[in-house]
Design goal:
Structural class: alpha/beta
Number of helices: 9
Shape: elongated
Order of helices and strands: EHEEEHEHEHEHHEEHHH
CATH class of the largest domain: Alpha Beta
Bound molecules: ligand JEH
Helix content: 25-40%
Number of strands: 9
Length: 247
């Protein structure tokens, strides 16, 4: 997968040299490039923002630098197979919620292009013009306000990269983690069996995997009901077996 990121703070993405994303870049699974938006400015002050039409607080990112950046990173027209152009992702408080389902969708793309806004956001015409040439998705991490899109791109990129073939050593953990089956994961324990007077639940040391699976399932349901009742309502009917429905 090819990924391009455009930001006025390219140094925000230094952590992408680390850990599993760093490994994915080193082995070619992920071909990542970070670009400074100011590359596409032409004035001495390298201006990227201006006051909002219609008034209002703060500043808005000007369309010209963004237009040139997207032209450079997503050249050409939409090919018949639609694969020569990237999918443009624009983090925004006004975006669609970023979910594990969207992470899976993005992991299937061959080229992602992230536009990191700052100030109050990017001139709408940048997104409107881009949408005439490529798929554009405004995406939000959640109902809180960040300073800009960079942190969101780090989150989205980590969630997507984890899903790429070969990135996670134990692919099984993908199947069992939260949001894969619509439930929160059960509590985790490791050695020692007793720590500061707190013992690992006996069932997890029993070796009885049917019991262990049932315990984990019960704990997942209890945890989800307590912390994320919204997820319980969204469960596919087949996810809850007869015993679950009885409880
Ligand atoms: C009512 C009320 C919910 N409104 C909220 C937004 N307020 C304006 C306003 C304020 C600050 C910023 C800063 N900013 C610039 C680019 C940018 C990209 C993403 C995000 C972002 N914030 N939160 C997320 N989940 C995001 C994502 N993904 C924030 C960004 C952008 C926009 C207006 C009030």
């Amino acid at each position: 997968m090819r990924v391009d990121i455009v930001s006025i703070f390219p140094e925000y993405f230094a952590p992408l040299d680390l850990s599993l994303i760093g490994k994915a870049r080193a082995n070619g699974t992920l071909r990542l490039a970070v670009h400074d938006l100011r590359t596409w400015t032409h004035d001495v002050h390298r201006t990227v923002d201006d006051t909002p039409y219609g008034g209002g607080p703060g500043m808005v990112m000007r369309p010209e630098p963004w237009g040139e950046a997207l032209d450079a990173l997503a050249p050409g027209e939409l090919s018949p197979d639609g694969h020569t152009l990237p999918r443009l992702l624009v983090p925004s408080p006004a975006g669609v919620p970023f979910t594990q389902a969207l992470a899976h969708e993005l992991a299937a793309e061959s080229h992602l292009l992230f536009a990191c806004g700052r100030y109050e956001g990017i001139d709408q015409r940048v997104l409107d013009h881009a949408a005439t040439r490529m798929p554009v998705t405004e995406v939000s991490l959640g109902d809180y306000v960040l300073f800009g899109g960079e942190v969101a791109v780090l989150v989205i990129l980590e969630a997507v990269t984890r899903l790429l073939p070969g990135v996670l050593g134990n692919a099984g953990s993908l199947d069992e983690e939260s949001h894969a089956h619509g439930l929160l994961e059960a509590p985790l324990y490791t050695k020692p069996a007793s720590w500061r007077g707190l013992d690992v639940p006996e069932v997890l040391r029993s070796g009885d995997h049917a019991r262990i699976d049932r315990w984990r399932r019960d704990e997942s349901l209890l945890r989800t009901a307590a912390r994320r009742p919204d997820m319980i309502g969204a469960l596919a009917p087949e996810t809850l077996d007869k015993r679950d429905r009885a409880t």
